[in-house]
Amino acid sequence: MPLLARMMNVFAVPGEVFDDVKRSATAPGSWLAPILLACVVGTISTLILFSRPEILQEMRGTRAKAMQQQVEKGKITQAQADEAMVMVEKFTTPTILKVSGVVGALAVSFVRVFWWAFALWLLALLLLRARVPYLKALEVTGLASLIGTLGMLVTLLLQINFGRSTATPSLALAVSDFDPSNKMHLVLGALNLVQVWMVLVLGLGLARLTGVPFARASLLVMAFYFLQTSALVLMGAGMAAL
Amino acid sequence: MNSSRKRRKLIVFSLIGLGLVGLTTWTLLRNKEAAVPVQTEKVSRRDMTEIVVANGRVEPVTQVNISPEVSGEIVELPVVEGQSVRKGDLLVRIKPQQYEASRDSARANYESARAGLTTAQAQLARAEAEYLRNKELFDKRLVSESLFVEVETTYNVERARLKQAEQQIANAKAALERAEEDLLKTAIYSPLEGTVTRLKSQLGERVHGTAMMAGTDIMTVANLDEMDAMVDIGEMDIVLIKSGQKARLEVDAFRDQKFTGAVYEIANASKGSGTTGTSAAAAASQEATKFEVKIRFNEKAALRPGMSVTAEIETQYRTNVLAVPIASVTTRPPKHNNSTNSVETADSGKPDPQPPGPPKPGRREREKAIEVVFTVDNGRARQQPVKIGISDEDYWEITEGLEAGDEIVTGGYRAISRDLQDGSKITKDTGTGKKPGQDEKGSAR
User: Fold this and answer.
1) What is the pTM for the complete model shown?
2) A13/B contact by beta carbon, under 8 A
3) Do A13 and B23 touch (CB under 8 A)?
4) Is the residue at A82 inside a domain?
5) pLDDT tens sequence across B220-259
6) Parent domain of A152
7) Within a domain: residue A241?
8) B9 vs A13: CB contact, 8 Å cut-off?
């Protein structure tokens, strides 16, 4: 199956694509092309997002609110909060946000694919007792990451429409005043439909590579996803509390 | 099977395509513009007093640095710092023995010179008599010419000696007077009634003094009944200051007490303008140009020299003028259609009330930035060029561009200084609004 066909079919018939990946010789394009595409989409999304005054305003508001909460709790004085806000404003100019956002998007595009490939390889080895070549796992996660790239586009459109950076294709979309220090809000934000779709496709990929039933493989990958997300939510809540 | 796959693909791609197209269309159609949260206020008339605020120090009107004109050891120091003294009270006595000896020596020289004069007078009398006798004999040709010339010469020499003796007396007298004067200078008396505000020397210390130059600074005596506030005023404001203007004075040490005063002396040259060369350049690069202004306190209090004081000098007063909060006036590049109404900041001679508006104004734009306020028009901000007059702590006078009752944007700071543009959508934010004078970043001065 040609690369373009793989990249298209992974959305509709991922099982066939992964069968083809398993049968065929290793093809670096299957993971490199999706990563590069994710880099391009991530860069453009970041530049557009941080050019929107309403998004920047909303981020400033969130920061000010968080700082005000700290003042109300008595953790810092108003003068310290004002000073901190001035410092933060200095380091969160649109240009700095764009540059750091683009760098972050590029890093995430690469790390996400390699990390998930490692996770699949490890799950197969430890829990399914199957040896899966890492490069094959990389091809699966690379192709599945195209769903995440599609998610980026959807997220960008939602953020522009709703005028807030926390608008994602998740249950948090229903929360108008998203509070990063609220654990429930973070959990709702973690229930991202596109992410769940991608995780299910990854589960399917693992099933095809190892030859185990889809239900078992997807359950494992889903469990890993929830563990990982929970850890991130707790970390996020901890950071917000600090 | 194959048709089922095709149908599945068709459905999935259609759903994805429709979703993306739908979201994109929604985005394009909605083109949501963020409403900038602002606080607003109606333009009103009020009485305004323009003030110039300056900081400085309390200084006595009269104060004298006491330094000796003769050198020596301090043998008597009957005052302590903070002590009141009357005019003529002894402040310091320098060891006088050396100067007494000098006086005695000078007196002896004087007496010696006087004795010399008596001798010279006697010798002259004798020479004169000899001269007159020989002249008479010479006229009768009874003595030789050579003898007469010799006697005449002796007479002239004695006359010259008399003059010399007289000069020696004058010299000796002057030396005596000088020695007596030096002796008198060993005791220093207070030149005024006041207080010893600073005492730098102590008993037994050797001090140096000369008649021509300032010697060791022993102490400062000041009259604390009349005090001045000596404040530094920047070059932009100094032109507004006139002698006789009233001032409110706040002394840090007397927080609960308000003082008043009046300007009575304004420096003609800036501080440090007298210095030359590299030192002047260095001074200029380190601090802004400041002029010293003296304000006389009207009230008497236990003020001490050196206390910090803040002066609010009332420079202008106007009644019933249109006024807007200082935070509401900002600068923006002029629009083409209102450039004729523009007030160029560079030419106005007034301080820039706010940082220029747009995030990245070019140099050319910055130079031509005009003063504007944002009026409220059906949920949108309208950029309105204005001409500003005087200002007080909270308000700018508006001389052109607004009318009483116009609703204008008064906050927040960021919205006015950066975010708002002509036509920007706004939303009134009543929750966090700050009244004029409370906005810590709003004040232009």
Assistant:
1) 0.46
2) yes
3) no
4) yes
5) 999 988 899 999 998 888 998 999 999 999 998 888 888 9
6) 3-234
7) no
8) yes
